[in-house]
Amino acid sequence: AASAAEAVAANRLVIVCLLDDASVGAALDGAGLAGRDLVNLTTGTPAEGRARAAWAQDRGARFLDGGIMAVPPAIGSPDSGGYVFYSGSAELFADHRDTLAVPAGTRYVGTDPGFAALHDVALLSAMYGMFAGMAHAFALIGPEDIAPKDFAPLLVSWLGAMSGSAHKAADRLTSGDYTKDVVSNLAMQVAGSATLLRTAEEQGVSAELLTPYLALMERRVAEGHGEEDTTGLVHLLSPRSAGS
């Protein structure tokens, strides 16, 4: 097709993956979307997904928003573990599920067109937290006679062992009780955090990746929640997401 409009005219299923939401609007401006099934895999925010869904509906199209949880080499590789979150029209997803599964696995997360982007960004945010911790850990060992390749397996093993805490955090958020079955409470962790900061100083490493999180722990303890698990920090970030 010589243009996006021609491509849309030739196919019922239209899949878009561009730079940003504004690019999607510009590319499809003037295209005849009535009767089309529009799937937007462009990375965006939940609000953008919802707005684009309304935009598509106004033009007579069914709509799915997508969030790609795969690096480029994983696309088209069935065994890569990569997948795409989809949200929006359940009927559209059911009609085209086999086609949508060609580039990567599929995970439908609901009729709210903003949910795919929300799941995507939430997981990416957690990933960047992990990357920040890894960067700090490698910086700490950097000045010493410790080979990064020897340290990496220890880091992977430790992070893997800690990843199960997500399930416990989910249980606590559901119940609203952050004090049940706590192994290392906030008061204890705040008391020990000084060691982390002193070690960074001794190693000549900036603690700027650690200090925001430690400050949240200190704040929660100061508010009288020292007996809690770290899950209580969610309340400081977003009272809407957690009980008090």
From TrEMBL:
This is NAD(P)-dependent oxidoreductase. Pfam families: RedAm-like_C. Residues 112-237 form the NADPH-dependent reductive aminase-like C-terminal domain. Transmembrane segments: none annotated. InterPro entries: 6-PGluconate_DH-like_C_sf, 6PGD_dom2, HIBADH-related_NP60_sf, NAD(P)-bd_dom_sf, RedAm-like_C. SUPFAM superfamilies: 6-phosphogluconate dehydrogenase C-terminal domain-like, NAD(P)-binding Rossmann-fold domains.
